[in-house]
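Minimal example, chain plus manganese (II) ion.
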Amino acid sequence: MVALDFRERRVHRHLSVRSADIIGDVHGCYDELQELITTLGHAELLDSDLPAAPVGMKPRLIFVGDIVDRGDRIVETVTLVHRLCRNGHALMVMGNHDYRFLRWLHGRDVELKHGLEQTIQQFQQLPTAEFEGKKKELIPFFEEAPWAIRFDGGKGLVVHAAWHAELLSDDITEEHFRRYALHGPVTGRKRQDGLPDRVDWAPKYRGPEFVVFGHQVYPSPYRQQHAIGIDTGCVFGGALTALRYPTMETVSIPSKGARYRH
Ligand SMILES: [Mn+2]
């Protein structure tokens, strides 16, 4: 058997998904996530006894990633998103925070900062057996999570941070692809707060896919011709936003309060 090229492993195709509610960075803001899912008309998805989606039924939600870190109800958030994905009700792309959490789950040396310390603290409050059980489920879940999802016949694409037309060309390595898709382009300079200086790529992006992304916090949905940023910074006191594709209407639930400050 020939090993799958990373492009096939990391870019999932759900071309027959023509409509979905695409949800921005949740970061453990479970209260707002429940309210958003309910407002979108999917309250039954919150029922943990909900059966798996029957064959042929399309997932209704797509998460742009960054499920974990910084928020106050991270365990419940990741448990819900995992259940919905496993049962065919939702899809998720990996965010940079989810990737670091996966590295921690694997026992790698990861710095406990940028909100990962909250994730670990909340998981460690679980009884040991439950914690071990969750770890066993979550490692393969994040391991197999795509770094981008193509949908709507290839017209739409969901990625955590950024995309460009040549990102899958032959000379791009898996590591380069991961850094671009999960962290986005950077200038190489540092900002005053020590974080990398990011490039505002979306206004310059010319397609062909319409890209829905998170990662970069905007005060309101960041609508560009070929892309939209939907991280409105719930965990920082902003709002949790969903894009209703293909109508392109957005629905935002105001944050119940900042859980994290830089
Ligand atoms: Mn984020």
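The longest strand covers residues 239-245. The longest helix spans residues 128-144.
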